[in-house]
Design goal:
- Helices cover about 50% and strands about 10% of the residues.
- The chain has about 130 residues and is mostly helical.
- A 3-stranded parallel sheet has the order 1-2-3, with helices on both faces.
- The radius of gyration is 17 Å and the shape is globular.
């Protein structure tokens, strides 16, 4: 279990593990968070940063292609192998102006994914790729 590994490796952690959180409560938790941190080496798509950004919560993600693309360059990135980059990014988010800028970027970006026509751009991109063949 991930929590057991975490607590063994970082016994002084102040992390709170939320178990059995119903999906309907996730937006409230996201809005209450200081930031979302997703230090991954590999990802399939990366929904959590988008969910955080839609809730007005800054996202800090690994500097890997899928997360840079998924977040549209509107999340802060850090090298997943460099602990100091993560610490520095979180500390910078404590500056109100920087935090506000990242929040606004994220909200603007995810706004394009909302509504009835959210997939229109995605489908247009796929069509353009097929036609380019």
């Amino acid at each position: 279990e991930m929590e057991a590994k975490w607590r063994t490796r970082f016994p002084q952690t102040r992390a709170i593990w939320l178990r059995g959180l119903p999906d309907r409560h996730l937006p409230c938790v996201m809005r209450s968070a200081f930031c979302l941190v997703q230090p991954s080496f590999i990802e399939g798509f990366g929904f959590p940063p988008l969910e955080a950004m839609a809730c007005g919560t800054p996202a800090l993600v690994s500097d890997i292609p899928v997360l840079r693309e998924t977040t549209g360059g509107c999340a802060w990135v850090a090298n997943p192998h460099r602990h100091a980059e993560w610490v520095s990014a979180i500390e910078k988010l404590e500056t109100a102006a920087i935090r506000r800028k990242i929040i606004d970027l994220g909200l603007r970006y995810v706004r394009t994914m909302q509504g009835d026509r959210a997939w229109s751009k995605h489908i247009a991109d796929l069509t353009a790729l097929q036609e380019a063949r």
